Amino acid sequence: MEHCLRPIPIAAVILGLLLTAAAQAEEALVLEGKIALPGVAGRIDHMAVDLARKRLLVAELGNGTLDVVDLPGGRRLKQIAGLNEPQGVAYAQKTDLVVVASAGDGAVRFFRGDNLAASGSLALGNDADNIRIDPRAGSLIVGYGSGGLGRILKITRWHTRKKSAAADNNPT
Question: Taking the model in full, what pTM does it have?
């Protein structure tokens, strides 16, 4: 009979711990504030953060835009328009680049982190979506198509500056 009674106190202790943990989790999640994004229509997809500049990058799939939000100020700093169903977004700290994957045209676009100027693009394939950064190698991994992964190697600021300079010197 002793063996039958022991599981009950143990179960009661476990239940008590679970209830306490749940109550603490509820207390830990408190809405601090909201940031309005006026004029955004449709679905918001992935987000990324630029910690050094305290900016949130928001891919707005239904709007065809990327919003750059000042987190401490709680306001939109800039909106990059003309993207074709932007889904994935990442911030590459080592190269100071914002990277956006667009499902509509399969393009991966690069923007300079400091001024958000366009600095290049790469046609990956249909339905470019999620982006991850390999922090050790600095390469990007982009999901696309029906289960494909594209790996973009050696993205450097030198390459993007070279492309931007060539574009700036083009008389057309």
Answer: 0.74
